[in-house]
Amino acid sequence: MSSIIINKATAEDLDVVQSLGIQTFSETFAEDNTEESMKKYLEESFNTEKVKSELNNPDSLFYIAWEEDNPVGYLKVNTGNAQTELQDDTSLEIERIYVKKSHHGKKVGQLLYDQALDTARQLNKLYLWLGVWEENLRALQFYRKNGFAEFDKHIFRLGEEEQTDLMMKKMLD
């Protein structure tokens, strides 16, 4: 495997972020959810206007993992009012770390997580937090391995379905 490079995304990366988002979310969750729910969620979350607005939001940052010219994963982090829930000025939310299935187990997720950690430290944040579906055991194991602990739960809507996300945080030193 060639080396993975992480680059900050800009508005010019709209198509890459949009297609990566759709592909990786589908690969991760399609087999556990109805086709209708997936279709509705993907249309709401990855339509061009929404992705463009997120890329242009100064409180959201996107990073793309590249293997040569091939985008293989991405990270989205939020501060301030862009955070989906807590909106604590001392925290950085990891909203998404998604990696193409073809690159699972190749440390791409770890590199993206390390980028989130570096970003939090550069912004002088006290902690990282995120929400992860309680049935996404791969992600739960990854975050626990990286020092996250559960502190609450919230409901995540996927189409018409309500799912429970575990909210996790990691204090920074």
Named CATH architecture: 3-Layer(aba) Sandwich
Structurally, the number of domains stands at: 1
Biggest sheet character: 7 strands, mixed
**Alpha carbon gap, first and last residue:** 33 Å
CATH-defined fold name? Aminopeptidase
The shape, in one word, is globular
- What is the helical fraction, as a range of percent? 25-40%
Order of helices and strands: EHHHEEEHEHEE
The gyration radius over C-alpha positions equals 15 Å
Strand proportion: 25-35%
Strand order of the largest sheet: 1-2-3-4-5-7-6
CATH superfamily: Gcn5-related N-acetyltransferase (GNAT)
- Structural classification: alpha+beta
The first-level CATH class name: Alpha Beta
Organism: Chryseobacterium culicis
GO molecular function, one term: acyltransferase activity, transferring groups other than amino-acyl groups
Pfam families: Acetyltransf_1 (PF00583)
Protein name: GNAT family N-acetyltransferase
Structure, described:
The structure is a single chain. This protein has 173 residues and is an alpha+beta fold. It has a single domain, classed as Gcn5-related N-acetyltransferase (GNAT) (Aminopeptidase). The chain has helices spanning 14-29, 35-45, 48-56, 108-122, 137-145, and strands spanning 4-8, 60-67, 70-78, 91-99, 127-133, 149-158, 161-171. The chain has a 7-stranded mixed beta sheet, sandwiched between helices. Strand 2 (60-67) and strand 3 form a beta hairpin. Helix 1 (14-29) crosses helix 3 (48-56). It is globular and about 40 Å long. The mean pLDDT is 94. Residues 4-173 form the N-acetyltransferase domain.
